[in-house]
Amino acid sequence: MSIVQELFSVEGKVALFTGGAGVLAGAIARGLGRAGARIVLTDIAPLDERVQELRQQGIEAYGYRMDVLDKADIERVAEAVKREVGAVDILLNAAGGNMPEASTSPERSFFDLPVEALQKVVNLNLFGGAILPSQVFARQMLENEAGGVIINFSSMSAFKPLTRVLGYSAAKAAVSNFTQWLAVHIAQEYSPKVRVNAIAPGFFLTKQNRYLLLDEQGNLTPRGQAIIAHTPMGRFGEPDDLIGTILWLASPASAFVTGAVIPIDGGFSAFAGV
Ligand SMILES: NC(=O)c1ccc[n+]([C@@H]2O[C@H](COP(=O)([O-])OP(=O)(O)OC[C@H]3O[C@@H](n4cnc5c(N)ncnc54)[C@H](O)[C@@H]3O)[C@@H](O)[C@H]2O)c1
């Protein structure tokens, strides 16, 4: 076995995604699946097509409807997955996203932002996007001899808030903070074999942010132009750009890494703009 295989192996591991129908989860699931992981996708959106597509590529894949905002639903799915596929080794908390109603705009000033919209985006990204699935699956991982890995999805907005997206920025800052909190808590109170980290993707063109980055003709908006100008590598990310970092965080290669939030951003967070 080469050192690369030894360090980065996820062969036979059960990797469960929340938000498994999403764009980033799709690319990561293909990557982990090609590396030999057994893929469990969960979402409130339909998953059949994606599961079929993975299976056609020779990847062992399953789909379960699961609402991350409903703890009883998560518990039900966790039991079913354990019975039908096996205990989860890797939890990827990919459910989440921005909501235009929780962002300022020329029509919606800060003073008029509805608290319900802010609560909704925090609920989705912090509670559903990180805390509730971690409560359920970390408990399961503690029963695994080899422990487990939780990977949260933070954002550039967590390091320094991006303009307009108030609710999303607050929620993702809390996701990064929770990642550190849980990493420490689990290692100290339960087991150092369950590691908790996050990725902070830079700017990837997806349905949640397309309206902010491209106009109706597909040209960069002033915000899109500003992002590219502040990304030293001069482009948006491609979902496949995330696979290598996820493979590292999910495998023994990162055995001594917990509580880290890893930017995958073409240098955006490092650049002072000058
Ligand atoms: N795309 C980017 O540029 C970017 C950048 C930084 C961080 N992120 C984060 O990465 C994650 C994935 O982003 P994406 O771009 O793939 O988004 P996406 O919208 O394509 O996927 C998110 C998925 O979450 C699911 N979801 C929503 N509510 C749910 C619920 N209650 N229960 C279960 N599933 C639910 C949606 O159905 C969707 O399939 C999100 O947390 C996002 O905030 C994305």
CATH architecture of the largest domain: 3-Layer(aba) Sandwich
Query: How would a textbook summarize the main sheet?
Result: 7 strands, parallel
Rg, Cα atoms, Å:
18 Å
Bound molecules: nicotinamide-adenine-dinucleotide
Structure, explained:
This protein is an alpha/beta fold and 274 residues long. It has two domains: 3-202 and 239-265, NAD(P)-binding Rossmann-like Domain (Rossmann fold), CATH 3.40.50; 210-236, no CATH class. The protein is built from ten helices and seven strands. It has helices at residues 3-8, 23-34, 48-56, 71-84, 115-141, 156-159, 166-189, 210-213, 222-229, 243-250; strands at 14-18, 38-43, 61-65, 90-93, 148-153, 194-201, 261-264. The mean pLDDT is 97. Bound molecules: nicotinamide-adenine-dinucleotide. Nicotinamide-adenine-dinucleotide (NAD) binds at residues 18-19, 21-25, 43-45, 67-69, 94-97, 124, 128-129, 153, 155, 201, 203-204, 206-209.
Concise account of the structure shown:
With about 270 residues, this protein is of the alpha/beta class.
